[in-house]
Every structure is written in C-alpha cells, then in structure tokens.
Design a protein that fits this description.
Elements: H1 17-47, H2 64-75, H3 78-88, H4 90-94, H5 96-101, E1 102-108, E2 113-118, H6 121-142, E3 149-153, H7 174-177
Parallel strand pairs: 2-3
Antiparallel strand pairs: 1-2
Length: 178
C-alpha cells in the first residue's frame, strides 16, 4: 500500500509558454468562429432564410400569369374569373350575328344569373328562345351549374317624358324600348 506522504505520479511536463500560446490561440479561433456563425445565422434570419442558389425556391420572382392564377385560387375567384373570360369571348360562344346585337352586362355569382342586354326587342326575344342552349354551352365551358339562368333585357332607352301622345306611366314605344 502506498502511504499518504508519497508523491502522486507525474502527469507529464507542464506546458511551456509557447504551448500555452498555441492553446490560447486555438481557443480564441474557436470562439471567433462560433461568434461568426451566430452572426451569419442572425443575418440570414433577417433576410428571410438561406441565400438563393441555382435552384428555384419560394422567394424567386414568378411570372405574372402564375401569380394571378395563384391569387385567383387563394381568394376563391375561379367562377367570377371564368365568367369574365366568357364575357371576353362572347362572340365565339354565341356567334358573330348575335354578338353584334346582344352583349353580357353582368354576372350575379350568388344567383348564378348572367344578364344580357340586347339592342332591340326583336333580338331580346330571339335570345330568350336561345337561352336554354346558351346555358348548356356556357356550363360546358365553365363547369356544371356555373350559369343557371340567362336574364335577357331589351334596350334601355330614355323614358319619354314629353309629348302630346304620351300615356301616363308609359316609358316609350313598346316595339323599340320595351
């Protein structure tokens, strides 16, 4: 057994001045690297994440068409946008002759009613007869149930307020403005 007064075994030589300097330099470099990494992470967090590389990510600019399509789908504007497209393609859908005399005015999304105004009562009557066919054609294009009814309106002329032959409550000649 060893007595309490015996010296402990030596661990090795004590580091000299040069060795202490190397250890201190290594520790300082590690601390500086850690501070630099932390600063870089804070900087990237302020910018919104990692830097963009050669591959596409969510921060890259997008084409106008895809941005509009994304906005339409996020807001739930698919049906109104589709009906707006139909209003732009109205001559293709109904034909050139009908499009010259009848044009869509508005679309009520809640009621699913397309309001069309004609330039004469004859064309309004003609379009009322064609309405079921047009509703079917529009629903093929837009999707089932997008348009339930086409409301046809005649010409919206000015009310005849003056004149010797005006009947009380009349809005004008029925064959032209009614």
């Amino acid at each position: 057994m060893s007595s309490p007064q015996e010296p402990a075994p030596e661990k090795g030589p004590e580091p000299s001045g040069v060795d202490l300097a190397r250890v201190a330099l290594r520790a300082a470099k590690e601390q500086a690297r850690a501070r630099g990494d932390a600063a870089q992470q804070r900087k990237q967090a302020r910018r919104g994440g990692l830097r963009s590389g050669a591959r596409a990510d969510g921060r890259d600019p997008m084409a106008l068409g895809s941005a509009i399509n994304r906005l339409i789908s996020e807001r739930g504007w698919e049906a109104p946008a589709a009906v707006g497209g139909v209003m732009g393609r109205w001559p293709e859908i109904v034909g050139e002759d009908v499009a010259k005399h009848c044009e869509p005015e508005r679309y009520d999304e809640d009621e699913r009613v397309l309001v069309v105004r004609c330039d004469s009562t004859a064309w309004a009557t003609n379009l009322r007869l064609l309405a079921p066919t047009l509703v079917a054609r529009l629903n093929e294009d837009l999707g089932h149930g997008a348009v339930r009814v086409i409301k046809v309106q005649g010409p919206g002329g000015p009310a005849r307020r003056y004149g010797p032959l005006r009947a009380p409550g009349s809005t004008g000649p029925g064959d032209t403005y009614g």
